[in-house]
Design goal:
The complex is a heterodimer. By secondary structure, chain A is an all-alpha fold. Chain A has helices at residues 3-35, 53-60, 62-95, 101-109, 116-130, 136-161, 164-172, 177-206, 209-214, 222-232, 236-263. Chain A is built from eleven helices and no strands. Chain A starts with a helix and ends in a 7-residue tail after the last helix. Classes of the chains: A mainly alpha, B alpha+beta.
């Protein structure tokens, strides 16, 4: 066999692998969409008939609305908190004069390496003592444990590549440290902040392990509602909720790609 | 050291900066006159940029003081100093257009809007980039970005402007053009400028005075012609232009002159009246273009030698002439000079005028 035909076979095999991955990972996700339009009272594939009743239920039934609103609220606050703390920590790690910066950075990133279930268990013990179980602040703190390391990872990478002379120039031209950050640093690391923010939001919206441990009895998040529904009886509303999730995710990706195209990587050293 | 011509606007007093074990700037004292164009010239690592950073407020002196208009500014934050600075890499804000870049210092100083408009436009006019306000830095060439950086440093009427190797990234033609343009801006605005460069030609072209720096110290300060004609030490003699060093030991000095025994060579007779200690090792500097062939000269101020190499470099011809076992001298002659061409291997006598010889410390 000559070299060229070997390469051809490799290409075909790679194509098949990619197709399999696509079939097993992506198709099931998309299948939720037609299934949400079924007329039956149970999940069926292929869907029978066409009905918007499950979508209507998702948007009108308090059982679904309240967890959705709580999840959105939780994700929004978590995002803001993670971004502020994570960005400040990144500035300290990159610009600050701190002893043991490398160790400190590893410490800040450690929640990424600890299995979530371990974190959940540990946080449960602490929160129980502090009476934070089942509270919004408690949930925000818990989800920020996941969000902050990601923000630090992205923003420190941005700051290391940042051309420091731009900040010096701003100072020289009469901007104090805060104005320099607002007018020069922040606009230039904005792509990183947006990316990190989107991640925090989706991660919080989607998170179930910490929620299971810490949600208590009075509150409900959207993933938990879906989980509970699947456990008892599989209603097509779960598929409707998934559909809304998918559309929101695709919308976010499209919006992000537009922002990225506009901003590219201005302000960084070659 | 020669003094500035006018009252000092900026004084560096015994300035020192140490980074760990490394002494970047070592006891530098310098007065810069109002309206002066002063260049800090030196090789990389000589401390010139560190001095600039201490003036701008980016570095805090280990010892000594920076005094601007009679006030110590050591503890003043960079944004309070009101000193313009043009960065080596321009440091234009990439997310702002040209207008917003130049308007930035004015906005920080809360200038009224119509005043900003007018000042930015006249700054753009000064650097000959009228109508470029809406472009973003990325769309501009290196030279244009440099002009915008200059306009931004000028626009807020700072009494002192600093330039940190601003032309380093430009090609030779453009650099020469920008040198003259900056010089014109200096003449026009009569603003004090401190310019950092490692390019001696640039320093000679632009400066009122040059401070030659080496290893954190100022070796010599003076106007360009003084530094070229009267260097006080080997470093300056070598860094500015080319030099021949003539090393020897004093054999005898009387009213007829000085007998100097060259290192591993003959004794020569110099027309030198300034007293030197007997038996001292001394070093003289002689510029290559101040040497001439002097076959019929008297024995004073001349050396016999052999031409080792002849190099033709367009408008000049260079000769490498061996004068002793240890030394060759480098001589430069205008190609237009009439006379017979000298050949490699030829025995010659070279001479110089009394004033051309400089004794170095």
């Amino acid at each position: 066999m000559n070299h060229e035909s070997k390469l051809g076979i490799a290409k075909i095999l790679l194509g098949m692998l990619v197709t399999l991955v696509f079939i097993f990972l992506v198709i099931p996700t998309i299948l939720a969409v037609p299934m949400s339009f079924t007329e039956t009272r149970y999940l069926a594939f292929p869907p029978e008939g066409f009905s918007l009743q499950w979508h209507r239920q998702f948007f009108t039934d308090r059982k679904w609305i309240e967890p959705t609103i709580f999840s959105l609220k939780l994700a929004s606050i978590t995002t803001v908190v993670s971004l502020i703390i994570g960005t400040m920590a990144s500035l300290a790690l990159v610009r600050g004069i701190l002893p043991g910066k490398r160790i400190l950075q590893l410490f800040f990133l450690s929640p990424m390496m600890v299995p979530l279930i371990v974190t959940a268990f540990a946080v449960y013990g602490v929160f129980a003592a502090l009476r934070l179980i089942g509270t919004l602040p408690g949930m925000v703190i818990a989800h920020s444990i996941i969000g902050i390391p990601y923000v630090i990872l992205v923003i420190t990478a941005n700051l290391y590549r940042f051309d420091l002379s731009l900040e010096l120039a701003a100072r020289n031209l009469g901007a104090n440290a805060f104005k320099t950050f607002m007018y020069v640093t922040l606009p230039l690391i904005r792509p990183g902040i947006i990316a990190a923010g989107v991640f925090c939001f989706i991660e919080s919206l989607d998170e179930l392990v910490l929620v299971l441990f810490l949600i208590g009895t009075t509150k409900m998040t959207l993933p938990l509602r879906m989980f509970a529904e699947i456990e008892f009886r599989i209603t097509p509303t779960v598929a409707a909720a998934s559909t809304v999730f998918i559309i929101a995710a695709i919308g976010t990706i499209i919006a992000l790609s537009f922002i990225e195209k506009k901003e590219e990587t201005i302000g960084f050293k070659e | 050291m020669s003094a500035p011509t006018k009252d000092p606007i900026l004084q560096l007093i015994d300035l020192k900066k140490q980074f760990g074990e490394v002494i970047a700037v070592n006891s530098v004292s310098l007065d810069i006159g109002d309206g002066e164009f002063l260049t800090l010239l030196g090789p990389s690592g000589s401390g010139k940029t560190t001095i600039l950073n201490m003036i701008a407020g980016f570095e805090f002196p280990t010892a000594g003081e920076v005094i601007l208009q009679g006030q110590s500014i050591n503890s003043l934050l960079p944004e309070k100093r009101n000193i313009g600075l043009v960065f080596q890499n321009y440091a234009l804000f990439p997310h702002m257009n040209v207008f917003d870049n130049i308007a930035f210092p004015l906005k920080m100083r809360k200038f009224p809007k119509n005043n900003i408009q007018q000042k930015v436009e006249s700054a753009l006019e000064l650097v000959q980039l009228q109508g470029y306000g809406t472009r973003v830095p990325k769309q501009l060439s290196g030279g244009q970005q440099q002009r915008i950086a200059v306009a931004r440093a000028l626009v807020f009427d700072a009494p002192l402007l600093l330039f940190d190797e601003p032309l380093g990234a430009l090609d030779k033609k453009l650099r020469e053009h920008m040198q003259l343009e900056l010089k014109h801006i200096h003449t026009k605005l009569n603003r004090t400028m401190i310019y950092v460069t490692h390019d001696q030609e640039e320093a000679l072209v632009m400066s009122d005075r040059i401070a030659v720096m080496n290893q954190g110290r100022i070796e010599q300060v003076g106007p360009p012609d003084e530094l070229y004609d009267k260097p006080t030490n080997s470093f300056v003699a070598n860094f500015i232009g080319e030099s021949n060093f003539i090393d020897g030991t004093v054999v005898k000095q009387d009213h007829d002159g000085l007998i100097l025994k060259l290192r591993e060579g003959p004794a020569i007779n110099l027309d030198w009246t300034e007293p030197v200690p007997a038996n001292a090792s001394i070093r003289f500097c002689l510029r290559p273009e101040k040497i001439f062939f002097a076959d019929d000269a008297t024995s004073q101020n001349s050396i016999n030698g052999v031409i080792e190499e002849v190099i033709y470099v367009g408008e000049t011809k260079r000769y490498m002439i061996r004068i002793s076992e240890a030394e060759t001298v480098n001589m430069r002659e205008m190609s237009t000079r009439i006379g017979r061409g000298r050949q490699k291997g030829e025995h010659v006598k070279i001479g110089w005028f009394k004033e051309s010889l400089r004794k170095l410390d």
